């Protein structure tokens, strides 16, 4: 993807890929008896590959596996890590409520198989990315707890040059879908108190299996849809259920004064052929006034 800028904004300072909820099962068993999670992730990665970008990180916001099976983590790692290595991008594994901390830590992080929260901090050339663990062992709702919030408060006491992004599984947003509001992040006021007034510029999350956006403590929140299956939000709220369609991921562009979260559909379709490399080169060769004349003026 070209980094040529033809408008008033310079190219993004950092670019991240944000996807979520892969829900791998051992032996690639169909999830729910119908969803091929491996094939759906492969299609997602192929779509990313076709974009020809060099992301600064690949962030996967939880429910990496469906049952926390060691074999499922091994299969997921075997797919994602070589892909990320080819793009020279670190992988940020975030724990979700369907994950099991001991197996995740051993299978993806080569760490001791304990119940310690799966957290981490990455310096992406001045952009700080902090992974939080909102999982509660034995439960599906989310909590962060006093210890993790204290750890986060200490980190945020020192701003990063390009600011901070938080990544966690349970989004600090309302959901209109019955079920998800039962399984929400429960200690949101305490998190808001830690985040408000800091250098946190965005929160990345998953869990909902549909893409949505909102604000929390004055900070934009972006929820990526699942790669395994998505929720059919066109159905009445009480009948919303999964469908093997509409999968997407987010392309996160970090600028000096703003961050954009673009939803990229995994399933492509035949497109028009008006814009191409030659057209872009012609536009790039013009000065701003000439570009407006050629492309903005109505004919």
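-> sequence recovered:
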């Amino acid at each position: 993807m070209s980094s040529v800028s033809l408008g008033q904004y310079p190219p993004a300072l950092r670019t991240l890929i944000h996807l979520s909820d892969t829900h791998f099962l051992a032996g690639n068993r169909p999830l729910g008896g119908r969803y091929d999670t491996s094939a759906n992730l492969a299609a997602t990665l192929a779509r990313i590959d076709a974009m020809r970008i060099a992301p600064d990180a690949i962030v996967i916001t939880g429910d990496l596996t469906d049952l926390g099976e060691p074999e499922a983590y091994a299969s997921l790692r075997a797919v994602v890590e070589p892909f990320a290595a080819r793009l020279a991008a670190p992988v940020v594994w975030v724990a979700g409520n369907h994950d099991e901390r001991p197996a995740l830590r051993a299978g993806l992080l080569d760490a001791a198989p304990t119940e310690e929260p799966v957290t981490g901090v990455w310096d992406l050339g001045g952009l700080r990315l902090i992974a939080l663990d909102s999982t509660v062992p034995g439960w599906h709702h989310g909590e962060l707890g006093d210890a993790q919030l204290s750890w986060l408060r200490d980190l945020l006491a020192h701003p990063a040059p390009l600011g901070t992004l938080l990544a966690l599984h349970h989004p600090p947003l309302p959901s209109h879908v019955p079920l998800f509001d039962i399984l929400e992040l429960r200690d949101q006021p305490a998190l808001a108190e830690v985040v408000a007034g800091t250098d946190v510029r965005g929160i990345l999350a998953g869990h909902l299996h549909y893409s949505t956006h909102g604000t929390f403590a004055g900070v934009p929140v972006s929820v990526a849809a699942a790669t395994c299956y998505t929720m059919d939000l066109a159905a009445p709220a009480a009948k919303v259920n999964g469908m093997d369609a509409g999968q997407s991921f987010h392309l996160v562009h970090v600028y000096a004064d703003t961050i954009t979260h673009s939803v990229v559909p995994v399933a492509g379709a035949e497109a028009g052929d008006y814009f191409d490399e030659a057209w872009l080169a012609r536009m790039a060769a013009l000065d701003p006034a000439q570009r407006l004349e050629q492309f903005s003026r109505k004919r």
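The helical segments are 37-50, 70-86, 101-109, 145-156, 188-195, 277-285, 288-296.
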